[in-house]
Amino acid sequence: MIAADATPDAGTSTRRKGLSPLFSCLGVAGWIVLLDNVGFWRTFLSAQPGSRFDQWTAAAGLASLLILLMAGLLRPLVGNRVGLTVVAVLLVISAGVAHYVDGWGVLVDRNLIRNVVETDAREVSELLSWSAAVDVLLRGVVPAVLLLLLPLASSSGWRTLGQTGLLLAGATSVGMLLTVSLYGTLATTFRNHRELRLQLVPANYIRAVYGHFKGNIRSPVAPMPVASDAWRAPRPDARPKVMVLMVGETARAANFSLGGYGRDTNRHLAGTGAVYFPNVASCGTDTATSLPCMFSNLGAGAFSVGAAQARENVLDVLARAGVRVSWLENNSGCKGVCTRVPTQAMPVAAPPERCGTDGCHDEILLPALQRELDQAREDRLVVLHMMGSHGPSYYKRYPAPGPFQPTCDTNRIQSCGKAELVNTYDNTIDYTSKVIAEAIRIAERHAQSLDVAVFYVSDHGESLGENNIYLHGIPPLLAPREQKEVPMIGWLSSSAAQAAGLTPKCLPAVAGRAFSHDNLFHSLLGFHGVKTGAYRAELDLFAIAKEDAACLRS
To answer: What is the pTM of this model?
Structure first.
């Protein structure tokens, strides 16, 4: 990485001695490609066929191409202090991104950048650790400081241009050689392992940041109306119809005992009459995607965050049709979904038994729900946005100690054993079940005056170290099932079921069918009797249950 470059330039009597800009660029490029891409090379090598020699030959060829290409792109910057500062910042950022790609199995795309932009200080703090700081220090800060402090040899504009051309020509030559000798192998590898482009530092985060901000540069406009023809038939003598919708966070179906998981993580729901839906797919694998998607009528197949932001969602439709909508927030925000409806954020300082500096346990939502139902004199939708199983600090999501021991009481979950990590996560599911059960009991106490229902569905799932992947946010096409299969639970008071034309057998009869977040928009409209051309009965959970043969026979 260090070499003297003291040859005089043409037309220059003296030159400053120091680090050669050419070899400095090669050193920086080699550092980033080889040391900041451990996760990338791990995936690449495991995907290669043939002997170990063949695998390492392909890796060496690709590494040479990447180093020459990156050095060629960096060379125009390594000639002045401003350019060196940019390269130093690149080293530090790349080290930070590499820490999470290598250690957490994170894949960096624009959805991840959107989640980072929309997160809060609490979430950020939970992703920080001393091991992360040391990693960034060694892989990023130290080489960046050395680059800035060590003297750099002067270089003329023509020399810079010539060296840049030489590096890019070298990259082109290596690229052509790889195309001739290994095209089939490399093409198959990158086609079958699309995660590689999301692991490659720094191309992954540069492309992701560009994609995110490019997609968000637009003039603010009023949201496009959805279901502008929505209306409801008058119900002058009917009791208020109330839906309590509990939106879970990071709960994966794989760890729900109601769905067959071997540990009793749903013990609190026993005897509540709740119906479990074991085959539900999420729209996305991160909150910033799934939350707006589940309230939209775009459907997972046509969904984009930009399109959802530009149009109304089901909360707007219900409010326009005369349903009073309220949003109770105990997470990091509604991602724009609740912008146009009354929203109440839960306190973070009191009461001390439920709240602290790291936020509130989800039981803080229950008194707020009680007040909402006490005041219900008209049809309502009450949304409870839960903290749920938000990681990586799972141990903070429930009152200690939790039924499953020992636990992983750190945000550095990779340092915990598999059993401790699963115990901690299962404690969050157990606590979520307790909160759902309490919400059902509150609703049940109001069943004499309200036609009330409680439904719970998680926004996305979670990875707990399977295939060395943690947390969530992997693009859906690449994501493991643990991040896409989510739990859903439903409960109806007897009067609400009767108003919907259902008997106790109806929901259980269809619970095993395949459902997804696409069903939510139409089910909420169906429950509240909203008529509109945007409504699709085939996606309305209640209409589906009502037409099931077992329901018709009962």
So the answer is: 0.80
